[in-house]
Amino acid sequence: MKVILSRKGFDSGYGGWTSPVLPDGTMLSIPIPVTDQTIKYSELFHNGVKYSEIIRDLMGENIKVEGEGYFGLDDLSCHLDPDIRKDSFVRKDGWKGIFGQNGSAFTHLNNQNVGKGDLFLYFGWFRKTIYNNGKLKYDPKCKGFHAIYGYLQVDEIKKINETDFEEWALYHPHVCRGKVASKFDHLFYAADKLNFIMFT
């Protein structure tokens, strides 16, 4: 089994802020902002609260998109990838965790023979939060830190431009590229159950 560390979520370039550790202890990785995709932060939820409300409380209206500048929150969409939190978005039957890779990132994984049974560990930049007068705020006593927040064990890998995807996967930003996707654009499907091979 290969283990791959993959940095995801808000950082100094994409978003410009840390993802929050919510007061209940949830490490909520915020997908990076983009200007050319369809899923809005207002369509993602944690315990019934829109991601857009969480972002607005913590970060205000101006969110950084690397290489493009700052945009108002309502003018942005998000790159929901990896998509590993089932209750964050409205799902169709059959959903499972998925993760897209393209270009040099996929080439590197392919050169390392990453495949079925291998494990992605996702880490990001986080900071604890507190409630202050009913609003979510960053904890002034806590500095930002990096931590692992999620995983995906690979079941299968599909090439985007050669696959007719199931209806439940059609929302995914890599799948949306369809037949115009590059030859390097692939989707990693999560295994139904986490399996470890132990060495002694």
Structure write-up:
- There is one protein chain.
- This protein is mainly β.
- It has one domain.
- Helix content is 9%, strand content 33%.
- It has 2 helices and 13 strands.
- It has helices at 51-59, 103-111, and strands at residues 3-7, 19-21, 33-34, 45-46, 49-50, 62-65, 69-72, 77-78, 98-101, 119-132, 135-138, 145-159, 186-190.
- Strands 1, 2, 9, 10, 11, 12 and 13 form a 7-stranded mixed β-sheet that branches.
- The radius of gyration is 17 Å and the shape is globular.
- It starts with a strand and ends in a 10-residue tail after the last strand.
- The mean pLDDT is 94.
Topology diagram in text:
Blueprint lengths: L2 E5 L11 E3 L11 E2 L10 E2 L2 E2 H9 L2 E4 L3 E4 L4 E2 L19 E4 L1 H9 L7 E14 L2 E4 L6 E15 L26 E5 L10
Parallel strand pairs: 1-10, 2-10
Antiparallel strand pairs: 3-8, 4-5, 6-7, 9-13, 10-11, 10-12, 12-13
Q: Which structural traits does this protein have?
A:
200 residues, mainly beta, two-stranded antiparallel ribbon, 13 strands, globular
Summarize the amount of helix as a percent range: under 10%
Low-confidence runs of at least 5 consecutive residues: none
Could you say which overall geometry the principal axes of the C-alpha atoms support?
globular
- Tally of separate domains: 1
Q: Quickly give the structural class.
A: mainly beta
SS element count, helices:
2
Largest beta-sheet characterization: 7 strands, mixed
Note the run of SSEs as H and E.
EEEEEHEEEEHEEEE
**What is the arithmetic mean of pLDDT?**
94
State the gist of this model.
The chain has 200 residues and is mainly beta. The protein is 9% helix and 33% strand. The mean pLDDT is 94.
